[in-house]
Amino acid sequence: MPVVAVAGGTGNVGRAIVEAIVATGKYEVVILSRKSNPERSAELGVPIIPVDYTDVDALARTLEDRNIHTVVSALVMMPSPNGDLPREVELIQAADKSRATKRFISSDWGLPHTAEHITQLVSVKFKLDAEKALENTKDLETTRFLNGFFLDYFGLPKFPSHMPPTTMVLDVANNAAAIPGSGDVPAVFTHTSDVAKFVAASLDLDNWDPVHYVIGDRVTWNEFLHLAEEAKGTKFKVVYDPIEKLQSGKVTELPGHIAAYPYFPKEILQKFAATFALWWATGAFDFKPKSTLNDRLPSLGTLKVKELLDRAWK
Predict the structure, then answer these.
(1) Which of 51, 58, 170, 292 could connect to 213 by a Cys-Cys bridge, CB 3.0–4.6 Å?
(2) pLDDT digits over 162-213, tens only?
(3) pLDDT for residue 79
(4) Any coiled-coil ranges, and where (predicted)?
(5) Separation of alpha carbons 138 and 60, rounded Å
């Protein structure tokens, strides 16, 4: 049975991916982590292997010793609060060096980034660095998954997800919205359970595309708002944030933002939310590839915005 290692598999996206691959029954799954976690290992029924992501040679030896055929990275691509940097590039280099490892999925899980985005969000540089590292590999088949924004956030806490509560644009729980721009620009949204399902299914493919696009649903924010109001049977308090406001690093404060301030300071949250709002308003999330993984795996359905909202809030 081929061995698949999920780096960061105890985290949010990573845990969904671990569960989806295990559910296929086709692969032996292990988790790579910065530290051991016997309790989580017992909970998931998957071995957790502590590794030092800064040591490429040692990491490559671990991949060889464990006969790991495929690495799926779900590493967090932001610096940690204690200053640890993402080590995606080192993980790619180690996988390329490992004689046992043949395939690698990089930690992206978002939208097509450009160099312009680097100054707008700190994670972008690390993702683009990883993209270059993938291009420089010699003995690996590699891919990245681009799936838009995670739909999970708009069903929490009522719809199952491993993602943490995060309020962006629509504060469904508090019947409020701060719509970026006109609200008429479409955007791609995909639930992590669907992303994980497509990752697991992609392991069976004979070949990968350099980028796998997964489209869960595509709606405008005005359409999203209407579906949320319909699901809850009430009108939301709505404001529209002009692009000029977003460019200044500001968004209209929502009740869900206030609840987050103890662990996500207001100034940082404002800039973070404004960056994503600007990307939505300018169409960065409305990517339209020539082909998608949905096309290659037509039997796999996806959770739609209306279904999520109705199941969570109606």
Answers:
(1) 292
(2) 999 999 999 999 999 999 999 999 999 999 999 999 999 999 999 999 999 9
(3) 85
(4) none
(5) 14
Contact 83, 50 (CB under 8 A): no
Are the CB atoms for 40 and 17 separated by under 8 Å? no
Full DSSP string of the chain:
--EEEEETTTSHHHHHHHHHHHHHTSSEEEEEESS--HHHHHHHTS-EEE--TT-HHHHHHHHHHTTEEEEEE----S--TT-PPP-HHHHHHHHHH-SS--EEEES--S----GGGGGT-HHHHHHHHHHHHHHT-SS-EEEEEE--EEGGGGTTTTS--SSPP--BSEEGGGTEEEEETTS-SEEEEE-HHHHHHHHHHHTT-SS--SEEE--SEEEEHHHHHHHHHHHHTS--EEEEE-HHHHHTT-----HHHHHHTTTS-HHHHHHHHHHHHHHHHTTTT----S--HHHHSTT-----HHHHHHHHH-
Q: In what order do the strands lie in the sheet with 237-241?
A: 170-171, 176-180, 237-241
pLDDT in tens, 236-258: 999 999 999 999 999 999 999 99
Give CA–CA dist 258/269, Å, rounded.
10
Q: Taking the CB of residue 177, how many other CB atoms lie within 10 A of it?
A: 23
Q: Report yes or no: 196 and 20 within 8 Å, Cβ to Cβ.
A: yes
Kindly state the tokens that stand for 163.
């993602």
From the CB of residue 80, how many other CB atoms can be counted at a distance below 10 Å? 10
Q: Is the pLDDT of residue 84 over 90?
A: no
- Residues facing 33 on adjacent strands: 50
Can you tell me the distance from the alpha carbon of 53 to that of 286, in angstroms, rounded to the nearest whole number? Answer: 34
Q: What is the distance between the alpha carbons of residues 168 and 262, in angstroms, rounded to a whole number?
A: 17
Q: Tell me which residue has tokens 């040679």.
A: 57
| 221-231 residue pLDDT tens | 999 999 999 99
